[in-house]
Amino acid sequence: MSIIHRDIKTSNILLDDRLTAKVSDFGASRGIAIDQLGVTIAIQGTYGYLDPEYYYTGRLTEKRDVYSFGVMLVELLTRKKPTGYVPSEGVSLVAHFMLLLNQDRLSEILDSQVSQEAGNEAKEVAAIAAMCLGMKGEDRPTMRYMETKLQGLQSVENIVKSDPELEEVLVRLRRRTFERSRDNADKEGHSNSRRYSMEEAMLFSASLQR
């Protein structure tokens, strides 16, 4: 049985006294048996966070919430609400974000404080958001994968804080990963998951073992 929330958005994410995120408002959620994923049902959700594939087809899959999660990451990076967003280009927040990401102009839409304090981490999170925002659900990663990806990013940050040499290695890997994510988005119209090459993985692994 898969539980699909159908209305993931920042206002439905609550923080406890330890700043642990809790998902709230399951009024629109549906429990779908594994063999029934992809069934067609009435559209429900919030404009701006709504998965376009779900909107046009009515097919409910576990990737529905992944898209909304990607929108939330964009909202956190830009500090702009996807609802009512009207840039000079006249496109949605997500479309504007993806356009600038693909053109290597991410800094133009990032919130200045986020850009200053997060640095290269912001680019990595942007690449993760792009994975979630694939137009086709089948091209998006699972939420489990995204959880592992974000936890890995946090773990690596904690390791390199105590070793300046490792930080230099990480910067190189980030740059390559970000460039590949952007190049892939240019070719396919959206960004898919990209992994480090074997050479890069060995380089980083060797550095961690010193």
Automatic annotation (TrEMBL):
> Could you tell me which SUPFAM superfamilies the record lists for this protein?
Protein kinase-like (PK-like)
- Keywords assigned: ATP-binding, Nucleotide-binding
- GO MF term (any one): protein serine/threonine kinase activity
User: Gene Ontology terms, cellular component aspect?
Assistant: plasma membrane
Q: Which GO terms describe its biological process?
A: cell surface receptor signaling pathway
What Gene3D superfamilies does the record point to? Transferase(Phosphotransferase) domain 1
Q: What is this protein called?
A: Protein kinase domain-containing protein
